[in-house]
């Protein structure tokens, strides 16, 4: 039997009418627009996120923003110190310049006196003098004046060298300051970018979903919400173990007095704080000066274990030591969480514990 295989033929092409062509062009244009916005990476429409997914992204953004905030605080501290050094160098240069001007004036007076005397060779002045004894007395004075002139020249030279040294040091400090200011701007851009993204994500939720996503303490912790239900809780109820020193007790009292204050990144009070700013202000009120950043604060005192915690101890969180609070007893702390929540009480175990320090 012979099997014949039919040849596959292309169906005849039908001419495209004007209406069909327009419709086809519109379809291709829409497809191109969808491709441009859906696959180029810049205009990609965000997938719909559940409140739980929003919470996870916002928590991550807040942690990254806080780490950048601590870097910003550290660089700002360095920039402020560089500015103070530069100002001191400028002040010292101005004082040296005043002394140089005085030395130049003294030297100018000596030169003017020599000019008035005509600058005649001393041997001829002696020969032509009508009163040799008087001239010799004057020559001795002129010799002493010459010594004063040499000393004046030496002072001018010394002041010039000192001024040049100070100006060189000022140039170095100015370069350092500008470098730190550029780094400040980079860190500020990082912080504000992450906070803006967090706000944008939260704005997509309903008020109830935002509350569930952020939690009463800004981290989604329901236990923290119950702990911070009453910001007027007396200090006496903070814990059964008293603060080890009066200064630690004063720092704890200050922290309690700031419950409800807003979180503002880079702020150190008296009306707003970031996490390390609250710690700085609390111990400043107790007469103790601490470093500005979490990285500096963890090394400012004696390290203590979690089992040894007493009110006033500083408790740190996350592997990067990017968050800090003040322990107040009963397993709780007062801290400035993030922009979604004010200063409040929270359990110490709501974040990954990284260490603790006793500074008073």
TrEMBL record:
Keywords recorded for this protein, A-Z: Coiled coil, Hydrolase, Protease, Thiol protease
UniProt domain NlpC/P60: residue ranges: 245-360
Classification via InterPro entries: NLP_P60_dom (IPR000064), Papain-like_cys_pep_sf (IPR038765), PG_Endopeptidase_C40 (IPR051794)
Family recorded in the similarity comment: Belongs to the peptidase C40 family.
Organism the protein comes from: Streptomyces tricolor
Coiled coil: 58-106, 160-201
Pfam families named among the record's database cross-references: NLPC_P60 (PF00877)
Stored Gene3D superfamilies: 6.10.250.3150, endopeptidase domain like (from Nostoc punctiforme)
Span list, region Disordered: 205-242
Name of the featured protein: NlpC/P60 family protein
KW Transmembrane (keyword) present: no
